[in-house]
Automatic annotation (TrEMBL):
The keyword Nucleus does not apply. The keyword tRNA-binding does not apply. It comes from Curvibacter cyanobacteriorum. Residues 55-390 form the Leucine-binding protein domain. Transmembrane segments: none annotated. This is ABC transporter substrate-binding protein. The lineage of its organism: Bacteria, Pseudomonadati, Pseudomonadota, Betaproteobacteria, Burkholderiales. PANTHER family: BLR6548 PROTEIN.
């Protein structure tokens, strides 16, 4: 087992969650009982052995009305189960636990000490600009004896300067905006209105688009800000309609983008609408209906999880069919979790079982250009691993076409 370094202080002890009740050392008294309840409520039914590699996921399992965190968890767990069935890494199994931060920064800050109590070697794919901004600004990773593999969203503020222990697999938001602008120009568009949520991701998105658009031949980029409120979105959508731009880009949380597109269509805007990769087609169809969703362009930072043609797609689908057979249709977040797990396992193998942050960081960076079956990840030049972005369009049946 890894020894707990002195800087952890409070988090020096790992609870024995594999007991039927919190009765061992480390779970004493009311504090121990409360911690056990909090963790057991979000832990999988199977617990880990003392020598397992432990991996954590903190995310919005409640509070965010879209399946980001649960889908990421399902994809990651399927791959870990595959690795475990083949003997694990260095003969040790990988165990994954989850904690709910309810999609807010305070929830993430409260969950992090509980996660560290379990002495994970890594966290995978935390979700939410507020939570991740707190992670960076308050330097919560400085003394944490782990690395973070992937993060959602891909906002530039989370990468520059970012944190040495935070590695991004997905392409950045700026790369998504570049692909949207390029896509719009191929369709002959030169004016765009940005409908964005009153959040850092929205404000930063507008700034990035204004900076980048002239390089793609756009003559006008304007923004309309809105809170995530039906009344304000209705007003904002009418303002966007009146601006009469050739295209609209919506930026915000998944539910905000879905609601914004519904309001835009209700306001009579029938031209091109594009959204960031965090919006899933099923959520858009559920909120706005198939007619309103039809033709909406959604940027994608991973290949089609239900597609054919890439070895990655075949490997992913085979893993999910074998280890998560109850899931019949796959989302990009399933694939994101699966890839997050694969990248971590590859780093653990390259480090020859040395799971210290320094060893994993060195393994990630020294691996160079890694090809995961048609999807490449390279951390040799920094902590952003992929530049892969494509555009998809919602078809008449409510499904994505890449």
């Amino acid at each position: 087992m890894r020894k707990c370094p002195a800087p952890w202080g409070l988090f020096a002890r790992r609870p024995a969650l594999h007991d039927a009740a919190p009765r061992r050392q480390g779970l004493k008294g009311l504090v121990g009982w409360s911690l056990w309840l909090a963790l057991a409520g979000s832990m999988p039914a199977t617990a880990w052995a003392a020598d397992d590699w432990v991996v954590g996921q903190i995310g919005p399992f409640t509070g965010l009305p879209s399946p980001d965190a649960p889908d990421i968890q399902a994809g990651a767990k399927a791959y870990f189960d595959q690795v475990n069935k083949a003997g694990g890494v260095q003969g040790r199994r990988i165990s994954l636990f989850t904690l709910d931060d309810q999609f807010n920064a305070d929830g993430f800050k409260a969950a992090l000490p509980k996660a560290l109590e379990n002495r994970p070697i890594a966290l995978i794919s935390p979700v939410g600009s507020a939570a991740l901004s707190t992670l960076i600004k308050e330097r919560l990773l400085d003394n944490a004896n782990l690395v973070v593999i992937n993060a959602v969203p891909g906002a530039d503020s989370l990468r520059n300067p970012g944190h040495p222990k935070l590695f991004h697999i997905r392409a950045s938001d700026r790369q998504q905006y570049a692909r949207m602008l390029e896509h719009g120009r191929t369709l002959g568009m030169s004016t765009v209105q940005v409908l964005y949520q009153e959040l850092p991701i929205g404000q930063q998105g507008l700034a990035a688009l204004k900076e980048m658009a002239p390089g793609y031949g756009y003559t006008r980029v304007e923004g309309t800000q809105s809170k995530h409120d039906d009344a304000q979105l209705t007003v904002a959508a009418k303002e966007v309609r009146a601006a009469d731009a050739q295209s609209v880009i919506v930026i915000g949380s998944p539910k905000f983008m879905a609601d914004a597109i519904k309001q835009l269509r209700d306001a009579g805007y029938s031209r091109s609408v594009m959204a960031l990769s965090y919006l899933s087609a099923p959520l858009l169809v559920k909120v706005a209906g198939e007619a309103a969703a039809r033709g909406v362009g959604i940027a994608q930072t991973y290949p089609n999880p239900n597609g054919r043609g890439l070895p990655l797609q075949a490997d992913f689908q085979a893993t999910m069919a074998r280890h998560a057979p109850e899931i019949k249709t796959y989302t990009a977040f399933h694939l994101e979790g699966y890839l997050s797990a694969r990248v971590l396992v590859e780093a653990l193998r390259r480090s020859r079982g040395n799971a210290s942050p320094e060893a994993l960081m060195d393994a990630l960076r020294s691996a160079g250009d890694q090809d995961f079956g048609g999807f490449r990840v390279n951390f040799s030049k920094g902590n952003s691993g992929s530049q892969w972005v494509d555009m998809s369009v919602v078809d008449a049946t409510g499904k994505l076409r890449y």
